[in-house]
Amino acid sequence: MAGNRTYDECSICLSLPTDPHILPACKHYFCGACINNLRPIDDELRCPNCRAIFTQDEIHPYIPPEKNAKYCLDLECSPDSGCKKLHIDNFFTDQPATEYVPPPPPEEAPRPATPETWKPPPKAKYCFDVCCPGGLEATCGRKHESDFGLA
């Protein structure tokens, strides 16, 4: 039965706490009637859960947090208006956001040459100029496709 106990119940009467009260030293809470009827042992009051020592004056009413937080969706509602709901301003700090700086691009790999930018190697034995007439009319001094008799 102890394994089925939830933290929303009084550990003295095992029901939902009525008029819940909390022990500040250990933060355990109980029904107001249950904790106020607790008998001292050796002139000391002890928490029924953890045996922490407390006095009658230390017992305080416990206000449980709301299970479903209510948000104010009215954009015109000022947080100072007395509205008890959570406003979007509650979630932001006054610190400016840091500006996103993208990482630098990786070092670019050499791009392949285009017909406009390609240059033949300086010691090339063959003529790569498509406008060169080749053959006997060639003045470049290099070999041409027509020199091989393939055409």
Automatic annotation (TrEMBL):
Gene3D superfamilies registered for this protein in UniProt: Zinc/RING finger domain, C3HC4 (zinc finger) (3.30.40.10)
Any one Pfam family match given in the protein's UniProt record, by short name: zf-C3HC4_3
Keywords from the UniProt entry: Metal-binding, Zinc, Zinc-finger
Chain intervals for the UniProt region annotation (Disordered): 97-119
GO molecular function: zinc ion binding
RING-type domain ranges (all copies): 10-51
InterPro entries documented for this protein: Znf_RING (IPR001841), Znf_RING/FYVE/PHD (IPR013083), Znf_RING_CS (IPR017907)
Name under which the protein is recorded: RING-type domain-containing protein
Species whose genome carries this gene: Mesocestoides corti
